[in-house]
Amino acid sequence: MLDLNKLNVFLHAAQTLNFSQTAHMLHISQPTVSKYIGELEREFDVVLFDRDGGRLQITSAGKT
Fold first, then answer.
1. Per residue in 16-50, pLDDT tens?
2. Please, which pLDDT band fits residue 64 given cuts at 50, 70 and 90?
């Protein structure tokens, strides 16, 4: 079942492209943001973000 809190975290992360900024905006910790994104990726078997060093980019086709 889709958790709306996790979806909200994903939406903010997709807008900011920054997990730390997302955490600050939502008043949660950065590890919680990473955990929620990881859980969504596992739940839907997709990669939501490309992580290249310190850069974050939303995937274009939801690669697995």
1. 999 999 999 999 999 999 999 999 999 999 999 99
2. low
What is d(CA 7, CA 36) in angstroms, rounded to the nearest whole number? 9
Question: Is the alpha carbon torsion for 37, 38, 44, 45 positive or negative?
Answer: positive
Terminal CA-CA length for the chain = 20
pTM of the complete model: 0.87
Closest CA to 43 of 62, 20, 60: 62
62 and 47 in contact (C-beta within 8 Å)?
Answer: yes
Task: Of 9, 19, 62, 63, give the one whose Cα is nearest residue 39.
Answer: 9
